[in-house]
Amino acid sequence: MFRALIFALICIVLTSPAYAAKKKPKPPAGIDSTTNLQADSLSRKLFGEKDDESQARREFDKGKEDFAAGQAFLAEADSMRQTGQDTTLKKPSGLFGILRQQFGDTTYSSREKETRKRAEIAFRQAEKEFARVLKIAPSMKEARMWLAATYDMLREWEKSAAIYREILNDRQGEDRLWFNYGYASLNAGQYDKAVTGLQQAIDISELISGDPAKTPNTYRVYAAEAYARTYQDKLALNMFRTAHQYADAPTAGEIQRMIDWILWDDGGILAAEHRDEAFRAENENRWQDARRAYESGISAARTEKAHDELTWRLALVEFRDNSPADALARMKTLVEGRDNVREEYRESYGKMLYAHAQNLQKSGDTRGALNYFLQSTTFPWSAQGAGYVEIAQIASNDLDTAIEHATKALSYPLTKEQQRVAYQILEASYRSKGNWEKMKYYRQLLDSNP
User: Which of 201, 144, 148 is nearest to 172 (CA)?
Assistant: First the structure.
């Protein structure tokens, strides 16, 4: 009795519509069941379950739409930047702008800035959608590429570099992927990884094409930068020089500037970096930062030329930053006892000595001023004679000393005013000495040079 009941229930289940719906569908026409099972298994591996695939595809399509919208907004903003239109920063305007101002929002913005914000919003939305795709269907590898590209657009370079590296585990032979990985690593400050990625891009491209001319030159340019960032000056120079051979005229000019930059200290990239850091600090009036950068550059310099230039620039900053003693000591070491000193170094030293002497004199330290005026006359520079004039003035009570130094001053180029002062000192000194002939001579010079 019990067995008969079970048999009846089984028959009901087997003949029910629900059971029929769960039966495996017949293979498509012309496909045997074994092939159909293999295809079904492969589809699940590639796309996940069918329902998941459909949902993932919808998210993927939305992600691509938002990505395209972000690109369009960026293109619009770039166009504004190029034309100069709609880039002026203004307070919020219009009805909503007035309301924002009433709530204390005084942020200045522009159409260009607002358009770039819209681009970021679109890319952020695309990021979420591509991430959802990978959560629903991890095997949908195409979405990983789009997510990495989205992080590129958002300048989140560490994230994009990490994704490109994952993709490269399966696709080692694609030079463009190696370039993307290297470029993202370079922007993320991961310079060793950038070297690896960019050099691989070059090697694979040349291996596949067999013709270096077919390798995108951007590969070489960024690889050279990566080598420079890792202080491999010889490799950087070789790569830049190769890139120069394949570059168009505008790009070749930029590459040559990079070559010259590396060669400034005969490949001493670190010294050049410290110099540039000091320049930026000077432009922003950060004098202490500039001093530290120049000191670091001096320590890193390979060549005498770079060492001297950085020393000179440091002395200029020290003098400007109220450290004249440090500046003058530094310049004395740089200029004294050397035959091949650049003229501008002597000029700077002379001007520093003269200005410092004047400051001491104004503060009442005439004895100290005399030291620096005398030092300014010991080497050739454009106002060497001016120091003699100042000494003659200080020594006006000692007639012979005044005459000696005023006479020496006139053997050098002087300004008209300095020349008149020298004539006045000589005229007065010779009058005091009773030398009427000399007195008349210098008075005539004074009268003829009003």
Answer: 201
Longest dimension (CA), the chain: 159
> pTM here?
0.77
- Closest to 223 (Cα-Cα) out of 191, 262, 188: 191
CB-CB contact of 262 with 240 (8 Å): yes
Query: What is the three-class DSSP state of 351?
Result: helix
Q: How far apart are CA 400 and CA 235, in angstroms?
A: 67
Token code pair at residue 24: 């495996």
* Radius of gyration over every alpha carbon of the chain, rounded to an integer in angstroms: 39
- The β-bridge partners of 109 are 90
Q: CA-to-CA distance for 349 and 331, rounded, in angstroms? A: 6
Tokens standing for residue 256: 């040559």
Angle between helices 366-375 and 343-362 (to 10 degrees): 170
Nearest to 329 by CA among 352, 360, 351, 305: 352
Predicted confidence pLDDT, tens digits, the chain (450 residues)? 545 544 444 444 445 554 444 455 676 765 765 665 565 555 555 555 555 678 889 999 999 999 999 999 999 988 888 876 655 555 544 544 444 444 444 444 478 889 999 999 999 999 999 999 999 988 888 999 999 999 999 999 999 999 999 999 999 999 999 999 999 999 999 999 999 999 999 999 999 999 999 999 999 999 999 999 999 999 999 999 999 999 999 899 999 999 999 999 999 999 999 999 999 999 999 999 999 999 999 999 999 999 999 999 999 999 999 899 999 999 999 998 787 899 999 999 999 999 999 999 999 999 999 999 999 999 999 999 999 999 999 998 899 999 999 999 999 999 999 999 999 999 999 999 899 999 999 999 998 877
Residue type at position 123:
F
Distances (CA, A) of 256 to 14, 221, 227, 268: 81, 11, 16, 17
CA gap 254, 261 in Å, rounded: 11
* Backbone dihedral angles phi then psi of residue 412, each to the nearest 5 degrees: -120, 160
How many whole angstroms separate alpha carbon 323 and alpha carbon 299?
Answer: 20
Interatomic CA distance for residues 400 and 387, integer angstroms? 17
